[in-house]
Amino acid sequence: MSRLPESFLWGGAIAANQAEGAWQEGGKGPSLMDVATAGSKTEKRHFTPGIQEGVYYPNHDAIDFYHRFEGDLDLFAEMGFRCFRTSIAWTRLFPHGDEDEPNAEGLAFYDRLIDGMVSRGIEPVITISHYEMPLYLVKEYGGWANRKLIDFYLNLCRTIFTRYRGKVRYWMTFNEINSTVLMPEIAGVLDRTRDDFRQRSLQAAHNQYVASARAVLMAHRIDPENKVGCMVLTLPRYPMTAKPEEVQLAEQEMRFNTFAFSDIQARGHYPYYVRAKARREGWKIDIQPGDLEDMAAGPVDFIGFSYYSSSVSTVDKSAEKARGNVLSGEKNPYIPTSEWGWQIDPQGLRYMLNRFYERYEKPCFVVENGLGAVDTIEEDGSINDDYRIAYLREHIKAVKQAVLEDGVDVIGYTPWGCIDLVSAGTGEMSKRYGFVYVDRDDKGEGTLERRRKKSFWWYKHVIETNGEEL
Ligand code: BGP
């Protein structure tokens, strides 16, 4: 093969909670991200117990995608997007999360959004749950640690699989499912001071594996054309040196941070090294009859993953730490970092694509990748984000090498935050990823006006030439 296949899905990605805003409109209930505060470059955000007076919550209005999506889809169509990844805000359809019947206004919104994609020839790629679980389920049920969430989630799945049958073919069950173990608060598992915190996190992850497998089975039953993927966060670890113990350590960290999750979802069972760890540490997971059987019967169809950065592993305890949002690791002296301290390593993407493909031989989908950077508007109104173009160019080259030289089957590439949006990790607007600039700052000021950046024209050309001209 000398060219990417013509069917290659070029596009972009966002998530409902970071873009839609309109947090109380159309019958929507509050979600966990509606109680996430604003952080900063150095300070992570946190969840408040409820909505607090005088606290700024950036996701409440976000970039007002809820009201402006038609214009935004026009911009994506102008760039030639063949697909667009977004999520369904659970609380628009089920404000509490445990209702039997969906909220009609919420459905009407997603009808318009999905029809808007389809009518523009843009293939919808839908994340079913992207960090936006109903706050009610966190408070009343203890989040994903409670098995009841499996059925509530499946009710959401049934609703959207049925409603969008024939319109949506690509689905992902949980965004960055590894965060359930690495940052359990995101799955509604709160209170690190409790002795059972770790236990509840592991249970939450188990419940999600079961929910994911049953969602895959359901999606296939409802429409055999449905393709359902996992979505895992990746951070390759290289050994700092050739010391055998460092090589071993890097592999261990890769396993427990990344591969454990893709192994479970792609192969349909807990891998041997997770079972060994569970025995060693005495995990007590409530596994009900049918759980393991369904996991085995419902592995995912493709491997969706996010990739921003790589890291190193070392036995040297004094080594300098790198930064990241969920995962970080140690600093690699051979690669540069972004303004937010994330290590930039295009070859790491080729490496990850190969690692996944050799493990599962299932199609891979790069559903997040990009550079968070501060943009400046020049006097003439232009935004010359050459740094972003440089980042994406090198990463696309790496994808091409993986496909054309190594033979990996890659479905598509959807850079993160194709339009500027609220950062998941810090709540900032100034950490921008987009081809489209949104006039809004870290305090929520701005007109929300959209503006094409230099990267907009560049990416349009990349898509036009199917990645031949970068
Ligand atoms: C991933 C999340 C996204 C996204 C991205 C960039 O972990 O799936 O929701 O935001 O990271 O991270 P940040 O927004 O913190 O820069």
Overview of this protein structure:
This protein is of the alpha/beta class and 470 residues long. 38% of the residues lie in helices and 12% in strands. It contains 14 helices and twelve strands. The strands form three sheets. Strands 1-2-3-4-5-7-9-10 form an eight-stranded parallel beta barrel, surrounded by five helices. The protein has a two-stranded parallel sheet with strand order 6-8. The protein has a two-stranded antiparallel sheet with strand order 11-12. The protein is globular and about 65 Å long. 6-O-phosphono-beta-D-galactopyranose binds next to loops.
β-sheet strand percentage? 5-15%
Low-confidence stretches: none
| Radius of gyration using CA atoms only | 21 Å
Average pLDDT over all residues? 96
Helix amount:
25-40%
Which molecules are bound in this entry? 6-O-phosphono-beta-D-galactopyranose
DSSP strand tally: 12
In terms of quaternary structure, what is this?
A: single chain
Question: Spatial order of the strands in the main sheet?
Answer: 1-2-3-4-5-7-9-10
Largest sheet: 8 strands, parallel, barrel
Q: What is the terminal separation in angstroms?
A: 18 Å
- Outline type: globular
List the helices and strands in order.
EHHEHHEHHEHHEEHHHEEHEHEEEH
Computed structural class: alpha/beta
Helices, by number, come to 14
Topology record:
Blueprint: E1 9-13, H1 16-19, H2 65-79, E2 83-87, H3 90-93, H4 104-119, E3 123-129, H5 135-141, H6 148-163, E4 170-174, H7 179-182, H8 197-222, E5 227-234, E6 237-239, H9 244-267, H10 272-281, H11 291-297, E7 302-307, E8 311-313, H12 346-360, E9 364-368, H13 386-405, E10 410-413, E11 436-438, E12 450-452, H14 454-464
Parallel strand pairs: 1-2, 1-10, 2-3, 3-4, 4-5, 5-7, 6-8, 7-9, 9-10
Antiparallel strand pairs: 11-12
Bound molecules: 6-O-phosphono-beta-D-galactopyranose (BGP).
